[in-house]
Write a structure and sequence with these properties.
The chain is an alpha/beta fold. The protein has 14 helices and 15 strands. Helix 3 runs antiparallel to helix 11.
Length: about 400
């Protein structure tokens, strides 16, 4: 077996230098835990960036992978396949939507939503109705269009000129959104909770207010649930907290528990704008990945994991707030369910590294926000262990 030092040397030599990787090589996972190439064990509170909602190597996911790999890996979308049909039906039955388009990632799901919005607006209103209003501090993907939709200049620098047709307004500011919407607005694109941008939860009236503005203007409301969906925030979809429904929703990350998959969901009246030949994906919703997503979503629903996420999230957030009395560098604790951010008065990166050295994997969300996103199967003991590790690390690095 290749030793860790050689693996990291090869990584530095052969990979495109697009990631700031931690200096460990993970080789195995089970449930809430992963192991590196030196045999060291870690409690994983990252879920692979909110992806492995059922944890690592969940038996039902592993079983679905084994069965699907021995049955049918791929046919093009010029043919029907049963797993994809069953998955689309299940998603529609458990959301606002009537139609589903499958793709491979969150960025692709958002690309599909942006194309749908433009085509719908041009067909229903006028040829110059193509703009999308998004929010500052948002994150919607790394393709040129989704990068243009993203409201963070640090990701856009060097890739100009950006795709035209996007405006950005402050998040959780209905007045700014109302002023930005005009006769050229095809859609409003928003995260129900800003994840990568710092785990910002809007006021209760924000999504209902956006729904009203879109209804009045004819613009579509697109909700980016790439990170917040699949039970992460304590309901199956984060829009449910607001009591309103979008016109279009994008999903990815946890949809197939680690196997790449994305989806765009839409109302019937909107989805009809994309007819045969208008959009496609070679690998979107293959029998293999659809089988895994079907097992993931079925397990999540049957085991009531969104409700578990709500309970465990409250335990974690209460515990984090309790740590503030001993650690003045901790500030506001915010989030919903198991998408949690902690504002820091110092850089997050050294704290993330110190936690890793103590066997706990956590994330940052911006320069001074610590992000916790454990698998939805997390239990009380794991929550308490993570809190104890944070307490110890904060005391040692103050």
């Amino acid at each position: 077996m290749t030793d860790t030092r050689t693996l990291l040397e090869w990584s530095a030599r052969y990979h495109a230098n697009t990631y700031g990787r931690a200096p460990i090589c993970l080789v195995r996972g089970e449930g809430l835990r992963v192991w590196d190439s030196d045999g060291r064990e870690y409690l994983d509170f990252t879920s692979g960036l909110a992806v492995v909602a059922l944890g690592h190597c969940h038996p039902r996911v592993t079983g679905a992978i084994q069965e699907a790999a021995g049955t049918l890996l791929h046919v093009s979308n010029l043919f029907h396949s049963a797993p994809q049909i069953h998955l689309a039906k299940l998603l529609v039955e458990h959301s606002f939507a009537d139609r589903v388009f499958f793709c491979n990632s969150g960025a692709e799901a958002n690309e599909a939503a942006l194309k749908l919005a433009r085509k719908y607006a041009k067909e229903r209103f006028s040829s110059d109705r193509y703009e999308v209003v998004a929010t500052r501090n948002s994150f919607h993907g790394r393709t040129l269009a989704t990068l243009s939709a993203t409201g963070q200049e640090k990701y856009q620098h060097g890739f100009e000129p950006l795709v035209p047709g996007f405006k950005h307004v402050p998040y959780d500011d209905l007045g700014a959104m109302e002023r930005a919407i005009d006769s050229r607005t095809a859609a409003v694109l928003v995260e129900p909770i800003q994840g990568e941008g710092g785990v910002h939860v809007p006021d209760e009236g924000y999504l209902p207010g956006l729904r009203k503005l879109c209804d009045e203007s004819g613009a579509l409301l697109i909700v980016d649930e790439v990170q917040t969906g699949m039970g992460r925030t304590g309901t199956l979809w984060a829009y449910e907290h607001a009591g309103v429904e979008p016109d279009v929703m994008t999903v990815a990350k946890a949809l197939a528990n680690g196997v790449p998959m994305g989806a765009m969901l839409a109302r019937e009246s909107v989805a009809t704008a994309l007819g045969p030949g208008t959009h496609a994906s070679t690998f979107g919703g293959t029998p293999f990945v659809a089988s895994i997503a079907l097992a993931t979503l079925t397990t999540l629903l049957e085991e009531k994991l969104p409700e578990r996420a709500a309970r465990m999230g409250r335990r974690l957030m209460d515990g984090l707030r309790g740590l503030r009395s001993r650690h003045p560098s901790l500030g506001e604790v915010r989030g919903r369910g198991l998408l949690i951010g902690v504002e820091l008065s110092r850089p997050a990166a050294p704290l993330v590294a110190a936690c890793r050295d103590q066997g706990l994997l956590v994330l940052s969300a911006g320069d001074q926000v610590l992000r916790l996103a454990p698998p939805l199967i997390v239990d009380e003991a794991a929550c308490d262990s993570a809190l104890a590790t944070l307490d110890r690390v904060l005391g040692a690095t103050a």
